[in-house]
Amino acid sequence: MSAPELDLGVRRAARPGGTSAAEPGAPGGSDLDLMPDVPRRGGTLVDLVAFPSRERYRDMVAAFRQDGFEMCADLCAVDYLTHPGRSLPEGVRPERFEVVVNLLSLSSRRRVRIRVQVPEDDPVLPSVVDIYPGADAMEREAFDMMGIRFVGHPDLTRILMPEDWEGHPLRKDFGVGRVPVQFKEAPGPR
Amino acid sequence: MSGAGTTRAAGHGLTTVRRPGAWAAETWEGAQELSERAATDLTELRRETGAVLRLPEGAVVDSGDVDVERTSDETMIINMGPQHPSTHGVLRLMLELDGETVLRTKPIIGYLHTGMEKTGEELTYVQGATNVTRMDYLSPLHNELVFSLATEALLGVELPPRAVWIRMLMVELNRISSHLMWMATNGMDLGSTSMMIYGFRERELVLSFFEKVTGLRMNHNYIRPGGVAADLPDGWQDDVTVICDTVMERTYEYDELLTGQPIFRERTEGVGSLTAEEALALSATGPILRSTGVAWDLRRTMPYLAYDQVDFDVIVGTFGDNFDRYAIRLNEIRESVRIVRQIIERMPPGDYRVQDRKVTPPPRARIDESMEALIHHFKVFTEGFRVPEGEVYVAVESPRGELGCYLVSDGTSKPYRLHIRGPSFVNLQTLPVLLHGGLVADAIADISSVDPVMGEVDR
């Protein structure tokens, strides 16, 4: 990993013209030309959104890492089971699950969001922990909450729920309020 | 790695216990526990004793300086927490000790998990702020802010300037109170009980002001989508000026008490060091990242609210040790006071919430004279307002780092998915690196300097 060449002076003036978060992103422009065949669009805020396929997801994350996105700011999963229909760019087939990765470039002050479709019958995605070690806990959380299995993760265990919990609570078909609180020693409903 | 480790080669490197209809997974290390030392193979042992961090380029550990002969009966695994008073809540650490030296650390969390992200899907956008404010209970206003900013980004409403500046005033005061709380507990962890009392004393000033403005000392539900709940009370300038003067004066007392004190410096300098590369790789943000010399503060680098119009410094450290993190927080209190003073001078007049009838309920006076206003008021508070379909990620700089909110809307009045990127949750990953090679006694100081709030870690 190269030393962070961060030109972030303490007294640096604010971005020219930048007021609050309303500055529009540059859709499709600037340095984000890598993998041009992957569907993408300008995000709602300052960031761009890319929609790689599962096969190209890891390559894309690695490419962004090479391109100066030093930090994996966030990784989470969304269950689109009961969503009436989201807008996706052409060529992207909607699946039940979506894993959303937010990458942050400190040197160019940009964000990029990568949204990968993950099918319900095979919720498996390659892990990016070896590219971004900080994704460790986030992938564990996504596994715990949504049941996405990250192949290559060194320690994919439950992180928030008890170890013997069944099911993944943030899934939309996980019953709310039906199961009494499960304590480890108490006789459960199972 | 006993037992489960043998099945590692199978398939994805992850074994699954097959029960009908449910996924449960085991790891090579067993169920969230540290494995036996004897079961660790040589490569793994080198990596773990060399550095717990998994660096992308596979930073090679020189096998010469790693004692791979160490057997399991020379080391000891102890649990710290979850009831340990120095773990700031219900954080449990498994520490592998060689004598008094910490080798490996595994933070085990989830004891405070209450499914707040799931709850957030059941509450309307109007009610949502009451939910998120309980996550990071030491800086509740930042949680409300990030949720409100995300909702407003989806709604596409523009706030009146006074609402923006009131928000900025409140979150900066909240940063002061949060850092004061940290100063107090950090002092306590290092044996300075006076600092404990002083930190709480000054924080009380800020909380009293919060109570005056919002009605509550914590969990305010004050910053809401569309603005803030109420205008500032009359004479708020005087209250805030008193807070600024007192806190500023007291920070110099802290200097005398801690900063220059030889015992304090001995205990913090060079302890729990982190490099900038490690901090970036582990996604650490906030004072942890800044202590390594990276001047990354979202208020400056990706300004939100009106932070590009106020004058303040981003405090950075050099060595990434506990003392740098202390100094950064102490000086950030001063910078926040500086920002607050500018806000007092420049608070614009006008509305404290957006006058978009879709988002804002009608004022109380209108309800008395108009049936439609009454119905409208009722509708906003029972059904809430509809938010256009879309998704957005918004981040603000909380006292602990990048606090992000990923919000997915399906066009109804409730969030389809609410994900909060808690800085404490992510920053906890630095603990194995901070503690590695240090003493158990310093582990307390390291945990404290990460400043985890377990409500936000577990959500």
Instruction: Determine Rg of chain B (CA atoms, Å).
Output: 24 Å
Secondary-structure element pattern of chain B, one letter each? EEHEEEHHHHHEEHHHHHHHHEEEHHHH
- What's the overall average pLDDT of chain A, rounded? 75
Give the N-to-C terminal Cα separation of chain B.
30 Å
Number of helices of chain A: 2
Number of strands of chain A: 7
Spatial order of strands in the largest sheet of chain B: 3-4-5
Tell me the total number of β-strands of chain B.
10
Percentage beta strand of chain B:
5-15%
Q: Could you name the CATH topology of the domain at 40-151 in chain A?
A: Beta Polymerase, domain 2
Q: CATH superfamily of the largest domain in chain B, called what?
A: Cytochrome-c3 Hydrogenase, chain B
Describe the global form of chain A. Answer: globular
CATH superfamily of the domain at 40-151 in chain A: NADH:ubiquinone oxidoreductase Nqo5 subunit
> How does the helix and strand content of chain A classify structurally?
alpha/beta
**N-to-C SSE string of chain A, H for helix and E for strand:** EEHEEEEHE
Largest sheet of chain A: 5 strands, mixed
End-to-end C-alpha gap of chain A: 48 Å
**Shape, principal axes of CA atoms of chain B:** globular
How much helicity do the residues of chain B have? 40-55%
Q: Might you state the CATH topology name of the largest domain in chain B? A: Cytochrome-c3 Hydrogenase, chain B
Examine the secondary-structure arrangement and name the CATH architecture of the largest domain in chain B. Orthogonal Bundle
Q: What does this entry look like structurally?
A:
The complex is a heterodimer of chains A (190) and B (459). With 190 residues, chain A is an alpha/beta fold. Chain A has two helices and seven strands; from the N terminus they run ββαββββαβ. A five-stranded mixed beta sheet of chain A has the order 1-2-5-4-3. In chain A, strands 6-7 form a two-stranded parallel sheet. In chain A, strand 6 (124-126), helix 2 (135-146) and strand 7 (149-151) form a beta-alpha-beta unit. The termini of chain A are far apart. Chain B has 459 residues and is an alpha+beta fold. Chain B has two domains: 1-31, no CATH class; 116-458, Cytochrome-c3 Hydrogenase, chain B, CATH 1.10.645. In chain B, 45% of the residues lie in helices and 13% in strands. Chain B has helices spanning 42-50, 116-122, 125-132, 140-155, 161-189, 193-214, 236-259, 262-268, 276-281, 287-291, 298-301, 322-346, 364-369, 371-382, 423-427, 431-435, 440-450, 454-458, and strands at 15-19, 22-26, 76-80, 92-98, 101-108, 223-224, 227-228, 390-398, 401-409, 415-421. Chain B has a three-stranded antiparallel beta sheet. In chain B, helix 4 packs antiparallel against helix 5 and helix 7 packs antiparallel against helix 12.
